[in-house]
């Protein structure tokens, strides 16, 4: 594959740092432009950034000069990844698209736009086909916006997709999350709120899980110009816990028709293969879902399992029958890899393989 | 009220330490005997104990000599509180009862015995009336066993009782818990399992919540000699989180017939008054349920709210309609007060007021 | 003692909250005015405050209307406690003093002013006598500024004072601190910086310990108009650790002349009695220094010992000879009680007893 | 280099797990035998082990059958790494040596034996030459024992060696440590002791730092048959903090003669090159000491810097003059890599390169 020049919007932030970590030795994507706020523009990346990753900053970017997020700074880029906060993402990302630059956004601003794909790369990359319609509407040949899901949604839709594929429509899903602090960025959650504590509230988060799940698991209209929500009823309760990375979810599922056994569910999750794997994308996990059986009743755990498949897998365990729903289980996602920066990267890899970028 | 002499079984353990903390200035219960394992017997309490409470050991017990848990050591006691581990509680507590000594146990061993009351003191103290039948069967005039619930069950049944009283039978309850480490005793949970982590499994815990809830919210047979489970279907998922004290639960409730509004639910919880309050017991909370409204969307939190009403209240917040069940909310209990030692103490206070001890 | 009307500057902040917690049932100080920023002024205290204490807000203050920090709002106050950040404390506290109101400040702004007492209440309350000179210079009969030390300094000077009293001048002191996050206020330290981590740097803190120790342990000039630093060389290294409350310090001491044994040191610390105790002040600890002997080699610990003597004691343990200095030990202070709000309150109690307020 | 067959003693423990993680893709060392307690022997490694590493167990070892620690089980091994607890290491390691098998031990048992090298691989690999004398005394041609230091000692001796090389003898060193919980193994430190807490005591640890530093920085007698301690006076105070991996130390140094500037010290640390680097060993760090300058005043930090150079570097920061000693700084070691398993591996690599294994 030819090497693509990529830019990063919001490069100094938490998601931006994760983009750079994941791209530091990527064979096909070469970091060419780093964009950040006016305050950072003009400084070296090292000067501009409070680096909070547990692996050192890559040598390559250390001395790169940070640019503003103006579209013209990114003119040379084949692809731009955005880790911008939603306060700024709306306008900046639109400007880049209008300048005919493809943008893969981690922000919430365009997720609900009917012709913008909302894609978790191990779930619904076929939704990328709507890009043709999006470009046509905007009279662009390259420029487009692709969004990835909220970090917590990813932990839900990956196993649900495998189950929907195997057992048909899902009627109801109850989700209780225990979410890592990195999801709130930096400085993010004050330590006084998290030490010896749990906070049973994350503003806006429950609605995102409930809505995004239905778009991601849903379909496309006949003209391939807009997405249609599926009918699954999702109820979410979100909690913040003192964990660095890794959102853990307790999920209960009721199917519309099927009532598979625990071993059926185990097999369906374990056997699930996504398009990114079939296309042999560089960052695609070997297992999209890592399943723990009864011999490991206390897994997955954030600290031990978030790095499974380099953070691109969702880990599932404790599959058991439920007295109210049909089945319940625990699901874990690396919230800044598959739940954020990694989603953008793998979405881009798939889109490139499919000739869409 | 006359002063009662009380003994503590398992006085050196985590629950035993909490008993002593709560009894240190109790007007009616005077600590007379401390019992622990053979290893500790004969030592001063200070020598025998790794004190882990955040308030200092009371002067009074510091130099008391620890006894074994033989029934004869407790002959002088009017009441004995047991913080014994279930490995030992079965035989020791039975021996004391057979020696005609009333035992209030925190262990699971007798909770499911048909004629042993399983009592959360702000929920079902009327169940204590079965003691008459228990004593009769055993040919005893004083000796008896009273159990309190598992720590996590308490967070569930207090709000459910208020709702059942107000809106009639509850059809289904889904519970996801985030439980404190003090629930596992000392040494208990290794720090390597808890730092930057959540463990989505606590052995035996889910079954306890599911079963105990039905006994506590259930009734008594006609002859007042055995308990009958109620019909509520309870599904529980339990997680251990890095919190010292305070179990937080996400609870979803479907009523059999009613479908009260959020403000109805808020009012029913807020107005709930239990028998321990009506009897004006020393340790009874002024509010059995502390309710947070929409102005505090991120409460209750373990670190900030576990001490509400000295740990004898359950705190509830985030009451909202649910798309699958009728209503969902967050509930917090101080797991070593109302969920353990405090339950025994307040149960004893009620039993004394009712002439049963 | 007559009841004094007190005001709080910065009442909504972390230190302000602690002032209110400590004053909630104080027999001599009645909270009359709460001052905070313009943003909070006009709101009820409950509305204006993100309460982060683990005990509930006292009923009394819940509905008090927060005022601005203008001097005229505090005209009725006999005493004003300031928990203001140093960015604002300088001007506001001076304005109050100039309006003839006594201010007890927790901020650093006036600590180094030659005629302003810098007082740790269990160490050097005799320094309060300089208030006469301060008032004279300012032509005031009541208005004055009294400061208390930085939170970490308190853990150092309490044991050093006892040792200096017993064994004469101290030549050198090496201090390494492990400090709680509450010392940085709210929101303060981001959780991403503290979970699974230690931060070996607190801006400005080392200099404060090194300088303030010398003023607090030093003397007053002949005319009682200015303080003189003592000659002890202090070297400090400060670290932030994931602890809510309680600064723990490793301290090594070399005396100028004496070389007392471990048991001499133990006795000197244990026997130490401060003026606040002799004057029988309400908040004075019964033991100014709680000493742990070899039977407790792992104490003091922040979580278990910070509440010793309601947070007004310093706890010392692990006293042992040192191969470089003479003796080394571990010292713990409750940083928001004796290290902040409690210092102001107990300083005020002493000053009242001495007729200075 | 030819591939060596290696065995692991104590393979199921915390240090054993780290050995396997570090060896999972090692080009020269092939894991051939896993030894553990009788309880584990006969089981597959997966069955026998509670895996606590944040990277998955390597496929290769998952199904290997665990052996006992009898010498005969390790007959095929060229090298045996021991992660045994000191309770068992003494006899087992001796038995292997007597069976002519080279053992690299992480336990304390033989560290003080005069003819056993105590080696930190980036400090004193020239001490390995004493193996000849050790073998001669025991009439062995291959069998020998090599020890590595206590985990906390490593953080001290690496910078001290660089300073001693550059500025001559060191007179006095004061060390205060903040040590990670992984140093205590599994289950190790109870979470109730560590959450919201620091424990200012680690049994035996201070003496190890004080003594081992002097052997590692010392010399060998004329006949190359025994080590001689150097004269540096070391005073250590050890604390346990809630950190998973990474021991952080505050170190103050007084030289016997020199008094280098901060920039001299910075340069000496930064320029330091050890024998393992010169021999181009596989695991040798590119920088033995990673130095942070004044632009990063809050580094090193355990979570952000412990993985520097894959855990084989020591990171140093906050170099500044000291008013009592000459210079002070902060030092960080990955306690289970350079401070434990990694030390054994890199020591073995050096010994192989030097023809000693």
UniProtKB/TrEMBL annotation, chains A, B, C, D:
Keyword annotations of the record: Amino-acid biosynthesis, Methionine biosynthesis, NADP, Oxidoreductase, Threonine biosynthesis
Protein origin, superkingdom: Eukaryota
GO biological process per UniProt: methionine biosynthetic process; threonine biosynthetic process
Pathway: Amino-acid biosynthesis; L-methionine biosynthesis via de novo pathway; L-homoserine from L-aspartate: step 2/3; Amino-acid biosynthesis; L-threonine biosynthesis; L-threonine from L-aspartate: step 2/5
Pfam families attached to this UniProt entry: Semialdhyde_dh (PF01118), Semialdhyde_dhC (PF02774)
UniProt keyword Oxidoreductase, yes or no: yes
EC number per UniProt: 1.2.1.11
Keyword Cytoplasm: no
Record-annotated active site: 151, 247
SMART domains: Semialdhyde_dh (SM00859)
Gene3D superfamilies per record: Dihydrodipicolinate Reductase, domain 2, NAD(P)-binding Rossmann-like Domain
Residue span, Semialdehyde dehydrogenase NAD-binding domain: 5-131
Function description: Catalyzes the NADPH-dependent formation of L-aspartate 4-semialdehyde (L-ASA) by the reductive dephosphorylation of 4-phospho-L-aspartate. Mediates the second step in the biosynthesis of amino acids that derive from aspartate (the aspartate family of amino acids), including methioinine and threonine, the latter of which is a precursor to isoleucine.
UniProt protein name: Aspartate-semialdehyde dehydrogenase
Source organism phylogeny: Eukaryota, Fungi, Dikarya, Ascomycota, Taphrinomycotina
Gene of this entry: hom2
């Amino acid at each position: 594959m030819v090497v693509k020049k990529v830019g990063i919007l919001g490069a100094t932030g938490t998601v931006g740092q994760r983009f750079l970590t994941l791209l530091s030795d990527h064979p096909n994507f070469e970091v060419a432009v780093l964009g950040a706020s006016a305050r950072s523009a003009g400084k070296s990346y090292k000067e501009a950034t409070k680096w909070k990753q547990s692996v050192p900053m890559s040598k390559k970017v250390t001395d790169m000069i940070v640019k503003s997020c103006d579209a013209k700074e990114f003119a040379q880029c084949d692809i731009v990844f955005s880790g911008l906060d939603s306060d700024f993402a709306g306008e900046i990302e639109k400007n880049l698209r209008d300048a005919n630059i493809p943008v893969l956004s981690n922000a919430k601003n365009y997720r609900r736009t009917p012709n913008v794909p909302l894609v978790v790369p191990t779930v619904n990359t076929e939704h990328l086909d709507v890009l043709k319609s999006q470009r046509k509407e905007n009279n662009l040949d390259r420029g487009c916006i692709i969004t990835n899901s909220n970090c917590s949604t990813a932990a839900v839709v990956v196993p649900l997709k495998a189950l929907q594929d195997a057992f048909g429509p899902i009627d109801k899903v109850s989700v209780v999350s225990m979410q890592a602090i990195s999801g709130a960025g930096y400085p993010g959650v004050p330590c006084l709120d998290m030490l010896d504590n749990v906070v049973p509230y994350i503003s806006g988060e429950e609605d995102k899980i409930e809505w995004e799940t239905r778009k991601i698991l849903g379909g496309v209209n006949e003209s391939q110009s807009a997405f249609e929500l599926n009918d699954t009823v999702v109820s979410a309760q979100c909690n913040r816990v003192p964990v660095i990375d890794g959102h853990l979810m307790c999920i209960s599922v009721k199917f519309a028709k099927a009532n598979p056994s625990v071993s059926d569910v185990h097999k369906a999750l374990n056997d699930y293969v996504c398009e990114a794997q079939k296309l042999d994308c560089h960052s695609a996990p070997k297992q999209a879902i890592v399943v723990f059986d009864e011999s490991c009743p206390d897994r997955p755990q954030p600290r031990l399992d978030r790095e499974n498949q380099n953070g691109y897998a969702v880990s599932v365990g404790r599959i058991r029958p439920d007295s109210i729903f049909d089945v319940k289980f625990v699901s874990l996602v690396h919230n800044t890899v598959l739940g954020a920066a990694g989603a953008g990267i793998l979405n881009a890899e798939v889109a490139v393989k499919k000739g869409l970028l």
